[in-house]
Write a structure and sequence with these properties.
248 residues; alpha/beta; Rossmann fold; 6-stranded mixed sheet; 9 strands; 35% helix; globular
């Protein structure tokens, strides 16, 4: 099986202060990978960098035979504005943006696809409710339905189970497993190590620098987890800025 992402000594950061340092490696096509590490380890930053929302301070991200339009990215819910007056069905239809074109024409097949996605996440009866009226778990189901219709080859999920009830978490894990079985590539930021052990075959352990990347049992070895903790305790929040130019 080939590779879909190659990371070449990549460093990402904010205001030239690195948050992910010197990460090299590759994500295989069809891989299901958990991205784990202490708070502030650069997990969310890495997904934003792969998505193209952050420009590397050093190194480069190589998408292998993949266009950014073929990536579905779900940020943490705290970054999503739910005050916009839109209902559940219209939110899911936004996942069809590539097929709808510049004028947003909603055809019968696109509408049927959105309804099927809502059925898949158990929210068809909520189709015409405003998203502002939903619980955290219900809204996360809507966002997963939108990703279902987006039909992406690479799916990036940033802490999708945060503040979500157990039943919703199990349902969403089933959807992620189904994406994996379909051959899609999925990367999920998670802080629940037991959940990672149970549901993910591969993991990347970050502590701003890469600690381990590979089969989940190897990555979650006690020595690796202890090293990540020690590295996090040594972080200097006032470290020098990265002065090298950003990569092209």
């Amino acid at each position: 099986m080939g590779e879909i992402i190659r990371l070449h000594g990549v460093t990402f950061g904010y205001e030239r202060h690195p948050a992910v340092h010197h990460l090299s490696g590759a994500v295989r096509t069809g891989a299901l990978t958990a991205v784990i590490g202490p708070n502030g380890a650069g997990k969310s930053t890495l997904l934003k960098g792969i998505m193209g929302l952050l420009r590397p301070l050093e190194g480069r991200v190589e998408l292998v035979g993949l266009k950014r339009a073929e990536i579905a990215y779900l940020p943490q819910q705290a970054e999503i504005d739910r005050s916009f007056p839109v209902n559940v069905l219209d939110t899911v239809l936004l996942g069809h943006w590539r097929a709808m074109g510049a004028f947003g024409a909603v055809t019968a097949p696109l509408l049927a696809g959105a309804r099927a996605a809502l059925e898949a996440v158990g929210l068809m009866e909520f189709a015409h409710r405003p998203i502002a009226s939903l619980s955290v778990g219900q809204f996360q189901r809507v966002l997963f339905a939108r990703m279902l219709v987006q039909d992406a080859r690479l799916i990036l999920l940033d802490e999708p189970f945060s503040a979500v009830d157990d039943r919703t978490t199990l349902d969403l894990l089933r959807l992620i497993a189904a994406w994996h079985q379909e051959g899609r590539t999925v990367m999920v930021v998670s802080h629940d190590l037991e959940q990672v052990r149970t549901n993910f075959p591969e993991a990347l352990l970050l502590a701003r620098e890469p600690v381990a990347w590979g089969p989940v049992a190897d990555v979650l070895a006690p020595t690796n987890l202890a090293r990540a903790r020690a590295m996090s305790e040594a972080w200097d929040e006032h470290a020098a800025r990265c002065e090298r130019g950003a990569a092209a």
